[in-house]
From TrEMBL:
Highest classification ranks of the organism: Bacteria, Pseudomonadati, Bacteroidota, Flavobacteriia, Flavobacteriales
One Pfam family here: Rhodanese
Listed SMART domains: RHOD (SM00450)
Domain Rhodanese: 32-118
Origin species: Sediminicola luteus
InterPro entries to which the protein is assigned, alphabetical: Rhodanese-like_dom, Rhodanese-like_dom_sf, Thiosulfate_ST/Rhodanese-like
Recorded coiled-coil stretches: none
Name of the protein in its database record: Rhodanese-like domain-containing protein
Domain of life (superkingdom): Bacteria
Length: 119
């Protein structure tokens, strides 16, 4: 009986917790970005140096990260990216922990996107 309860508890934890979806940024198509909130979590200076079309800049390391996300519905799909993928993964974890239901981390970051564009 104890084993069954342990397995049941394990299943509840595994299936009850939201998982971070990950898509390699280099495999993105423009169609995948049509109905999502695309967020670049790099610093404003990094963002100004170049970013994906239609991306919003919400700096992960800034004091207003949480405040700026108040304007984003928790039911909207959110795609996050940064320079190489570390900050965006942390931001995605934070978003899931704060009730955002559909969060995707774009792995590889802006650097991988630029690499894909090179001939």
């Amino acid at each position: 009986m104890k084993t069954i309860l342990s397995l049941l508890l394990f299943a509840i934890v595994q299936f009850g917790m939201a998982q971070i979806k990950t898509i390699p940024i280099a495999s993105l198509s423009e169609n995948q970005l049509v109905s999502v909130v695309l967020v670049d979590v790099r610093t404003p200076s990094e963002f100004e140096a170049g970013h994906l079309k239609n991306a919003k800049n919400i700096n992960w390391m800034g004091d207003t990260f949480a405040k700026q996300f108040e304007a984003v519905s928790k039911d909207q799909p959110v795609y996050v990216y940064c320079k190489v993928g570390g900050r965006s993964l942390k931001a995605a974890e934070w978003l899931l922990a704060h009730g955002y239901k559909n969060v995707t981390n774009l792995s590889g970051g802006y650097d991988a996107f630029l690499q894909k564009k090179k001939p």
